Amino acid sequence: MTAQLSSAAGESLYPRLEPLLAQVQKPIQYVGGELNAQVKPWADADVHWALMYPDAYEVGLPNQGLMILYEVLNERPDALAERTYAVWPDLATLMRENGVPQFTVDGHRSVRDFDLLGVSFATELGYTNLLEALDLAGVPIHAIARDETHPVVVAGGHAAFNPEPVADFVDCAVLGDGEQAVGDITDVVKAWKAQGRPGGRVELLARLARVDGVYVPRFYAVGYGDDGAIAGVARTRDDVPAKVGKRTVMDLDEWPYPKTPLVPLAESVHERMSVEIFRGCTRGCRFCQAGMITRPVRERTITGIGSMVEQGLKATGYEEVGLLSLSSADHSEIAQVAKELADRYEGTNTGLSLPSTRVDAFNVTLANELSRNGRRSGLTFAPEGGSERIRRVINKTVSKEDLVRTVTAAYANGWTQVKLYFMCGLPTETDEDVLEIADLAVEVIRAGREASGRKDIRCTVSIGGFVPKPHTPFQWASQASAETIDHRLRVLRQKINEDRRIGRSIGLRYHDGKPGVIEGLLSRGDRRVGRVIERVWREGGKFDGWSEHFSYDRWVAAAAEELAPFGVDLDWYTTRERTEHEILPWDHLDSGLDKEWLWEDWQEALNEEEVADCRWTPCYDCGVCPTMGTEIQIGPTGRSLLPLTVV
Amino acid sequence: MARQPDGPPPPPTVQKLRIRYAKRGRLRFASHRDLARAIERALRRAQVPMAFSAGFSPHPKISYLGAAPTGAASEAEYLEIGLAERRDPEAVRAALDAALPEDVAVLECVEAGEGTGSLADRIDAAVWRVELPGVRLEELAPALEKFLAADVVTVAKRTKNGLKDIDARVAVAGASAAEGAGCAILHMVVRQVTPAVRPDDVLAALVAVADLRPPLPPRAVREAQGRLDDSGTVADPLGPDRAAGIPVPGAHAPV
Fold first, then answer.
1. What is the CATH code for B124-226?
2. Which helix (H) or strand (E) holds A606?
């Protein structure tokens, strides 16, 4: 436990923090004061939220989800929201020595003083950082050990669709879109406090468990069978739902957040502002958890996008706008959006970018519009699979010819750098599937040199190990072992280097297979995995997303010892293929996807059969819209953007 | 030959402005890169008509002069910007000041005087004020005396290539000690030398000569920069531009 000096709730810790900042790396990340940050008076709010991104500031600050909730909550007069991030070990050590607890960067208030600590998990590798932050905050890491003076720890983000591995550490998890859920939670906490906290923490959690989309793990008991698999999940009180369904925000134009994006002084991973142009994706890529759990597609209209870009640029001074979504070129009016935004910002050196472009949705006209006023950066495509066969398995079908043609067109039009993203270790994959990546890259360089008449074009192949995720057709799949991944990466590298005259134009970027195995354990883990996480953290594990901090050996040793009493092991969670009727740890958490449909889609994957996108073809009954009462919301609206009036 | 983007080249620089600004309070923890990013964005928010470099990656024309180290505050940071349209320097100062965080204050903005030479040539020394919380004047004064009496004081400086021994004494043109509230205050004039001698290096030198170890992290403020004259004072580097006395044109003067 961290030594704590007593202080009034909501008081600034900055005077105690400041002397420590002179002794740490990149102190700017801890001082707050970002453009568009807010510090509201503590006493003015009934409900206080600390919002955490459990990674370094430079990664966490640009996170859209956190920025949205920060604004949505702070717009309420009765609520206050501040941000906190994982502190680097150099500062954490000094904080423990000097009794300075985990603080928010806005008001430098102790996280311990807040009513709620919302933690956004984009990846499972942030779990150890949650434990570190709780400990630094002086909050017991086990939910069961907290009393009504401690913040309610709420998990959100995509990883919250299977929060079982952190079920012992969080008080609740929110499934799906957070914009409306945080408001409902705020109302519940506010009423409970106003009534004098009746029934203590348990009553508060019971009330929260009745909020749509909120899962309170302690009210669900999990039993295990002799084979190690889950035998059943049962409610421990009958006033909580048997199955918790996700939240879905409809009509994105009603939620134009963030309106005033935060602009850090410190360098961050995304030096641009982003506008989410649609949410959800129905392309049906079978590996993609985001595409499965965020259905249906809900587009922001062209005019909604235009006003967010206008307001955001004014509020930030950024020179690049990312048009964000899971597959941005699929927006029904993307061509008009790109052209009309480029017209509006002609001569202002304002660049537009699509962080995610499908090969089959790309065209040169669009790309030219995007870079018309800004910097022409590289182009990125994600074929994901090396062979046409494996691309059918993952349902991301694009022919080799189309791929080469598209990339060649880019080179011919002046782009000199193209990045191709792939995965390795996909279900049914063989060495040959991965080796085709080399053929593809060679073909791209050959055709590109010919089309552009230049020798200096480059193609970067970026490849990572595939991790099967809950709520996807691949949730039953065997994950490839680290050895398999590393072997395939090795043979791929050899093949790329075979012909140096071409190979020198191809860059290969990859990660070894080890972190993916641990991510796999945490992704499809159940509550027993919590003991592994705790053990790793107690032995010094944190910042697992950073190769200089991640220790595979520590995870493997902790998994072996902590899982052995249950008769399971690391392989059981990762490389083991599940059977159709096995109860999966997240079965009581409802993304709307029908489990039978997921199984059928898994079988079709094995048969290399494709599924079309339901935006343009009839519904194939994935189950989401009827279960959740939602519908596809797409254009075209036929509207257009008027030129901005110059003041 | 390097390829150029289609279309006309960017408009040329028609006016150069020289700016003095301060970094204070929490933003003393900002690095030079942090501040440079903040200033570029603030110029955009303030709608200052910047001139840009040519090429596929156009950059606004800004040049920064030797920035104060991360952790040190400053009342005298300098930069020069190139504009594609003429503007009233005071209007630019006010707009940029409003667009920057409170702890970054834009103090002066003048038009570069024709034929007055470069700003960098007018800066070769800095005036520093270093507060030493928890240190008494009776401790600082004799330590400083010892330091000033030495010809050479070697300290280890952390550089990109590891620790390197440098002489901290040679750069210090003058120094004095004073009493502050709960702290001793070290005033000094430090010459620009290579490798640079920073306040931390002088403090390390005080440890070396007199074992003066402040119990709390010191707080340094760069109070001025400029050319050091024989009398030991530092001249205002914007003086020559002001003296060039260009009458302030209207914001929309024809180019």
1. 3.30.70
2. helix A595-606
User: Is residue A613 a contact partner of residue A282, using CB atoms and an 8 Å limit?
Assistant: yes
**Which pair of structure tokens corresponds to residue B179?**
């009493």
Coil, strand or helix: which one is A543?
A: coil
Domains of chain A by start residue, with CATH: 14-245 (3.40.50.280)
Residue A402: phi and psi, rounded to 5, are: -65, -40
Amino acid at B108: E
Structurally, at CATH architecture level, domain B15-119+237-244 sits in: 2-Layer Sandwich (3.30)
CB A385 within 8 A of CB A422: yes
Which positions ≥6 away from A453 have C-beta within 8 Å?
none
Q: What average pLDDT is seen over chain A?
A: 94
Closest alpha carbon within chain B to A34: B101
Pick the residue with more confidence: A414 or A24? A24
SS3 state at B178: strand
Listed in sequence order, the DSSP H helices in A22-75 are 57-60, 64-74
Chain B 84-113, residues with CB within 8 Å of chain A CB atoms: 99, 101-103
Identify all chain B residues contacting A317, using CB atoms and an 8 Å cutoff.
40-45, 99
The helix-helix angle for A431-452 and A400-412 (nearest 10°) equals: 30
Stated pTM of the model: 0.93
The answer to whether the beta carbons of residues A36 and A180 sit under 8 Å apart is no
**Cβ within 8 Å, pair B29-A31:** yes
Quick one: tokens of B160?
């990109």
Q: Does the beta carbon of A364 lie under 8 angstroms from any beta carbon of chain B?
A: no
Contact present, A30 and A105 (Cβ < 8 Å): yes
For residues A252 and A300, the answer to whether their CB atoms sit within 8 Å is: yes
Which residue type is seen at A493?
A: R
Give domain limits for chain B. Answer: 15-119+237-244, 124-226
Confidence of residue B253 (pLDDT cuts 50, 70, 90): very low
Query: Are A69 and A247 within 8 A, CB to CB?
Result: no
Q: Which of residues 215-234 of B touch A (CB under 8 A)?
A: 216-217
Cβ distance A318 to B41 less than 8 Å, yes or no, reads yes
* Closest residue in chain B to residue A351, using alpha carbons only: B57
Q: Is residue A271 less than 8 Å (CB to CB) from chain B?
A: yes
* C-beta neighbour count of A536 within 10 angstroms: 24
Residue A564 near chain B (CB below 8 Å): no
**pLDDT tens by residue, A54-112:** 999 999 999 999 999 999 999 999 999 999 999 999 999 999 999 999 999 999 999 99
Rounded to an integer, what distance in angstroms lies between the CA atom of residue A131 and that of residue A538? 9
Distance, in Å, from the CA atom of A48 to the CA atom of A504, rounded to the nearest integer, reads: 55
Which H or E element spans position A290?
Answer: helix A289-293
Tell whether B38 is within 8 A of chain A (Cβ).
yes
Asked if B188 and B128 touch (Cβ cutoff 8 Å), the reply is yes
